[in-house]
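for the recovery benchmark. tokens below, seq after
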């Protein structure tokens, strides 16, 4: 497929970096969906405007071919409902809490997220008919609470109200799976960790496990990984924290059937940590990549990794 270059029609967005530099962004999505998945996974935390523009374009226009409606656990999830798009676009859940903070998101939002715990269902319903929730400048509502003033578009309020029952149903179900240590059955949240990740070390190993195929005990590879880490992480010298993904679809994931375990450790002990993980999790003899937690960039894009280690083969820098 030829690069559209400078002849691209006005209004078309053109890629400004990488191997498809000069191509229209939509042409890249059509020609190489895997590149779009890679970009979502790799460039989401970039500091380059050109890369962030591409990530935003992908999130808005890329339609993956994985059919979540065929998943018995996910098919009724609130975020797969068409009404949820306005909430997920602004990183809100039906409780109107911000579940992801995007420092690089567009700044021209006409509302500030309502991040409060004190609003009951009854109070929320009454807002529609009382001064607590009123039209402001003809396009959004203003919510006045003791914790502050918050601006919400009508479609945000309506979507949250209509999807809240679904959200709370899965929240209750998730509690059981979190306690049981089965992240592959947790639907509402993106990550599980046995403790708060308050202190992040210099870098991380990223390990991938199947989250769809269950054994005779009803456990996936991801579930087994999480349970082993939960029970043994304190015994792994140099491991500072870890988190494991859940069943909830993540737009940054390149493989929808796989879950990921993120293992945080310092640079000095990274190889020792991996070798201990290899023994604990029965890792295959292959190449594993370690990244600095704060990404380091090359001249024309983010470096995928800063260091690799081949099990049973000498390590080296990328």
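predicted aa per position
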């Amino acid at each position: 497929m030829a690069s559209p270059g400078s002849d691209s029609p006005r209004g078309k967005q053109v890629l400004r970096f990488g191997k498809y530099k000069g191509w229209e962004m939509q042409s890249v999505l059509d020609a190489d969906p895997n590149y779009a998945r890679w970009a979502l996974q790799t460039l989401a935390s970039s500091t380059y405007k050109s890369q962030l523009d591409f990530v935003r374009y992908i999130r808005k226009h890329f339609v993956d071919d994985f059919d979540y409606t065929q998943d018995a656990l996910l098919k009724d999830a609130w975020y797969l409902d068409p009404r949820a798009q306005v909430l997920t676009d602004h990183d809100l859940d039906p409780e109107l809490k911000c579940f992801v903070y995007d420092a690089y998101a567009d700044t021209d939002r006409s509302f500030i997220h309502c991040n409060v715990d004190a609003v009951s269902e009854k109070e929320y319903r009454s807002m529609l008919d009382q001064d607590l929730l009123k039209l402001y400048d003809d396009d959004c509502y203003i919510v006045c609470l003791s914790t502050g003033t918050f601006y919400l578009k009508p479609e945000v309020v309506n979507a949250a109200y209509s999807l809240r029952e679904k959200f709370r149903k899965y929240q209750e179900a998730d509690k059981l799976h979190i306690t049981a240590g089965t992240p592959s059955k947790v639907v509402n949240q993106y990550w599980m960790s046995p403790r708060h990740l308050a202190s992040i070390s210099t870098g991380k190993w990223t390990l991938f496990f199947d989250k769809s195929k269950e054994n005779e005990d009803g456990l996936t590879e991801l579930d087994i990984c999480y349970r082993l880490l939960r029970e043994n992480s304190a015994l792994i010298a140099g491991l500072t924290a870890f988190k494991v993904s859940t069943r909830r679809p993540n737009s940054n994931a390149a493989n929808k059937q796989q879950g990921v375990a993120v293992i945080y450790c310092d640079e000095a002990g990274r190889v020792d940590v991996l070798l201990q993980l290899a023994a604990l999790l029965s890792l295959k003899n292959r190449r594993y990549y370690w990244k600095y937690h704060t990404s380091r960039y090359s001249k024309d894009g983010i470096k995928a990794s800063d260091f690799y280690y081949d099990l049973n083969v000498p390590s080296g820098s990328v």
